[in-house]
Each structure stands twice: as structure tokens, then as C-alpha cells.
Amino acid sequence: MTWLSILRLIAPYAICVAIGFGMAWKVQGLRVTAAEQDLIEYKQAQVQAQIKAEQDAEIRRKETANEYAKHLAQLESDHDTYRRCVAAGKCGARVIRLPAMPNGAGSGVSPPGRTDADLPDAIPAAGEVAEGAEVLKDCARTTLQLNQLQDDIEKQSGK
Asked: What is the pTM of this model?
């Protein structure tokens, strides 16, 4: 067999391999281009989603701040009424009164000691709660803040 006859046998196969390789190269190029385009669109969608989430969070923060300010103003206006109610023993402050013992020993319970009475932020004794208006205000503000934060967390999770 001569080189010419071998070339005649191999030539059709070589041409088919070259055409197949060229078509496969072209198809893969189209697939890569489509994948790159999908990646670009995905990145743009992620950026848009992040912008939308930030805008929603900002709106939620403003709503929460406005709602908190409204409740705080209402709390400030209701504080004096609440303080009078607590002083009268009808709201919130529970005073436990024990009956006197028949043998004259009194209630048998001594009042709690006030080891921190000389400090500026001392915890008031049970009977002094109504006079400690700042303690009531702080407690009410803290409760309002916690309630507002809980509401905001529930809004974020979509509950």
C-alpha cells in the first residue's frame, strides 16, 4: 500500500472529524456565551434584590421609629395617671398584707434591708415604688422598647 491509497482511506474520516470538531466547538461556544449571559442576569437580579431589601429595611426602620415615638409620647402622657394608680395600690404594684398574728408577734416578716440606700440609683423598697417616678418611667420605657423590638422582629420574619 502506498501513501496515496492510505490517504484515500483516511481522508473521509479526517474530514468528518474536522467538521464534527468544528461543530462541537461552535455549540460549546454558544453554550458558554449563554451561561455567561445567565450569570450576568443573575448578578444583576441579586443586586436588585439587595437594593430592594435595603429599601424595605429602611421603610421598616422608619415605621418602627415613628411607632415607638408615638407610643413613647403616649406613655409620657399616661405616666402621671399610672403613677397615681400605683400609689393608690390599684395598678401593677402588688402590696401583700399579712394579717397580724394573734400572739402579738406582728406579721413575722421583717422588711427587707436596703443596703444600697445611699447610692443614687438605689432600688426602692416595696412601699417606695410609687414615689420613684423615674424607676417607673425607666421600666415603662424599657418594656416599650422590648415590645417594639419584638414587633419589628416579627415583621422581618413575615409572621
From this structure: 0.46
Residue 107: inside a domain: no
Q: What's the structural domain count of the chain?
A: 1
Average pLDDT, the chain: 77
Does residue 78 fall inside a structural domain?
yes
* Domain contains 105: no
- Residue 129: which domain range? 13-100+125-156
Rounded CA-CA distance 91/141 in Å is 17
pLDDT-flagged residues of the chain (< 70): 79-134, 136, 157-159
Distance of alpha carbon 92 from the chain centroid: 30
pLDDT one-digit tens code per residue, 93-135: 444 444 444 554 444 454 455 555 566 666 655 555 545 566 7
